[in-house]
Amino acid sequence: MAKQLTFFSNKFRVTRRTGYAHENHMHHRIVHQLSCGISILSSTIALHVIVGVLVCTLAAITPTMTWSATLDGLEQAIMPESFEKQSRTVKLISYLVDKSYFRKVPLDNRFSEKVLNRFIDKLDPAKSFFLQEDIDRFETIKYEFDDYIKRGALEPVYAIFKVFRKRVNQRIEYALQRLEQSFDFTLNEQFLLDTQQSAWAQSEQSLNDYWRKRIKNDIINLRLAKKSGADPDNNDSDDINKTLRNRYAHIARRTRQFNADDVFQSFINAYVTTIEPHASYYSLRGAENFKIHMRLSLEGIGAVLQTDNEYTLVRRIIPGGPADIADQLKSGDRIIGVGQENEDIVDVIGWRLDDVVDLIRGPKGSTVKLDILPGEYGLEGKPETIIILRDKIKLEEQAAKKRLLKVETEQSQSTIGVIDLPSFYSDFDGKSVSDPNYRSTTKDVRKLLIELKDESIDGLIIDLRGNGGGALTEAISLTGLFFRKGPVVQVQNSNGRIQIDQDPDPDIVYDGPLVVLVDRHSASASEILAGAIQDYKRGLIVGEPTFGKGTVQNLVSLNRFVNTEEDLGQLKVTIAQFFRINGDSTQHRGVIPDIIWHTAERETDSGERAYENAIPWRQIDKASFVPFQLSLDAQVLNQTLSRHFSRVKSDPEFAYVLEVNKINKLNRERKFTTLNQDKRRENRKQRDLERLTLENKKRKALGQSTFETVELLDAEQDSRDEDAENENFIDQGHDAFLVESGKILTDFVYYKNLSKDNSPKTVVDTKLVNQNLLDSIEPINN
Questions:
Q1: Which of 118, 329, 549, 655 registers the highest number of CB atoms within 10 A of its CB?
Q2: Cα–Cα distance for residue pair 539/532, rounded to 1 Å
């Protein structure tokens, strides 16, 4: 039966009668989940959960409570029928976080304020609905949320959500009325694109003005996109008005459809992500979505999505998935529309993420149409429509592959073997039943290495670009193919215990020259391999600083701790942290390559560094290990780096990437956009011309034909996208970064052979050498 609470003063008063629960302590067999979603490494972890968790009934963990709650100025809040279950759940989560979580954060007033702010931000990230007076009222209880969590008091949460729902209805009512009025598109006024650092609206009039500009901006975007045949100069276009009416009405409808589980999940996620960004709570529907992602079996597009204000942002493309194969959707793109095979595209700006995902999913073999804003152009970019064939993630597309790279430098020629490794995979089911044909990364790479050695390669590149991780056991055993038995990674659990994982196989499959190629998307298991290769001085790490994902998450069903038929949901918690054998964590900082591309963007808003509350980098004691016999000496490395930087200074493709990165950075950092339609159109033309000029400059330097217009350039790209969808198409495009990696390896081998008869080598800190040479080209921000 629903409970109704009346709010009439400025404080919540809590009256409670406390029951008792016994203490318990037990160990659990945990299956860890790493960042890419593959089950790995069964090990015994102690969960010290004391007082009221591991008991026989829900009643035993929950003291009987009666509540009287008040908050000045807030209307009556109808508590859901699931309120008591949610109250028990939040207390259970609080215990689990306190007793078994890797990061220990005190549940105090400071933390309480952060939880409130994050919950408000989850409800209204663009500051489009709440007024400053609402925030002021909420802040009267900003130091109380630690107590509410401990007691399972959720009345304030529903009171805040009720205010939010009221404000949404008010704003959408205004927007729909204002949409029917005229706008002056010749005024030189601006619209704020990034409201994260802006103040809350002080009055309803101020918020009305924000929404007037927002509507005007939406109309200009649709005009310039020429959606549905709309006249770009017609303010009263029926198509545009219909699109925006549906968009705004959906925001209100979506908010009305928020049920108790949605509100509860939003608040709990505000709570746990205040601790650190990888924690999550999943209600029944959310848990099913997470399981689908973990199994990599979604018949969709194969992309990890997240909400970014009112947009659906592509966080990561899953290797081997339809989006990866089609090569049209990129990390950083925003999905603004979704359409089925023979239906119109539906505008999804302002939609809930799970509703967008539901639209994208569909039968295997069917197509889905997506309207996207390319990430490199920011929110002012021209929308593009792409078509992707739905399918499951294919293991064969994730599997390791080999190829040969013929390299010629000023000093030498060589044949370089390349192993592309999109993920660290393993057929756990096949392995568990001793199936001799089960697939795994280590088995496949071992076979490829033997084949490449038979082809007399002069060196090897392991390409980990875009590899988001996978099975820890595979990262350990694969690393062991390149040196004899020894430690590979250290894992510290929430109790401070450190486990050193060893390579159990003393055999070396390949002992020749080695480069590991990484980028900002190389994460988790990829960083373990790259870090170990660097620590053993087994090879050179080349590319960009990696993602910095050095923690282990575990998905825990809350039902396992109680005896009830109710579904309490699941909690994803961080239970351990990775450390390299030299004692450095891969967390936050990632792996810094020995040779960093001078095109690498020195930003703090990528990878783990983008999270304001990410677990920081730290060190522990190094493990006992013996470096590989092929130490890196200063003279050889200096000569290799000198030749590398000499080449890339004049390389047209590297110059092109550097210029594009600078332009993209400016686009992403743009805070305002003009609401003068003619100026907006001219700005877009200027950006298209800039893009055409850069492309033609590169093509001319490479001896390729140039394009006369942007339209011809786009048509050529569309043609390549269509070819990429054909599974028989082999892209013969020039990968400048891979080729340069081959040249680096070739030079390294050449100079090393020259130095064999010289004086004893001096082992060098490659980070310092790399920094000094890189500083001569462009300042680097460490």
A1: 549
A2: 10
Residues 6+ apart with CB under 8 A from 109: 143, 146
Q: Is residue 535 annotated as part of the catalytic site, yes or no?
A: yes
The one catalytic residue in 324, 501, 535, 594 is 535
Give the count of beta carbons closer than 10 Å to the beta carbon of residue 574.
Answer: 21
> CA-CA distance, 523 to 424, in Å (whole number)?
11
Backbone dihedral angles phi then psi of residue 378, each to the nearest 5 degrees: 70, -165
Is 549 a residue of the active site? yes
How does 577-594 read in b/e, with b if 16+ C-beta sit within 10 Å? bbbbbbebbbbbbbbbbb
Whether the CB-CB separation of 13 and 69 falls below 8 Å is answered with yes
**CA torsion, points 164, 169, 171, 175, in degrees to nearest 10?**
150
Q: 3-class secondary structure for 225-260? A: HCHHHCCCCCCCCHHHHHHHHHHHHHHHHHHHCCCH
Q: Which of 283, 423, 524, 741 is catalytic?
A: 524
Structure tokens at 469: 């991780």
* Per-residue pLDDT band at 176 (split at 50, 70, 90): very high
Residue spans of alpha helices (H) in 629-676: 634-649, 652-669
Cα separations (Å) of 473 from 90, 479, 555?
34, 10, 18
Q: Please spell the DSSP secondary structure of 114-182, one letter per residue.
A: HHHHHHHHHH-TT--S-BHHHHHHHGGGTTSHHHHHHHT--HHHHHHHHHHHHHHHHHHHHHHHHHTS-
Average pLDDT for 123-151? 95
Q: pLDDT tens digits for 557-566? A: 898 888 777 8
Q: Of 549, 572, 743, 752, which one is the catalytic site residue?
A: 549
Beta strands in 257-333 (DSSP E): 280-282, 303-308, 311-317
Task: Give the list of residues 6+ apart from residue 321 with CB closer than 8 angstroms, or none.
Answer: 296, 301, 302, 303, 391, 393, 394, 397
pLDDT tens column, 724-766: 444 433 343 468 999 999 999 999 999 988 877 555 544 444 4
With residue 28 as reference, give the H or E element that holds it.
strand 26-33
Helix, strand and coil content of the chain, in percent to the nearest 5, comes to 40, 20, 40
111: nearest Cα among 252, 273, 304, 296: 273
The confidence score (pLDDT) of residue 286 equals: 53
Which of 108-122, 199-213, 679-693 has the weakest average pLDDT?
679-693
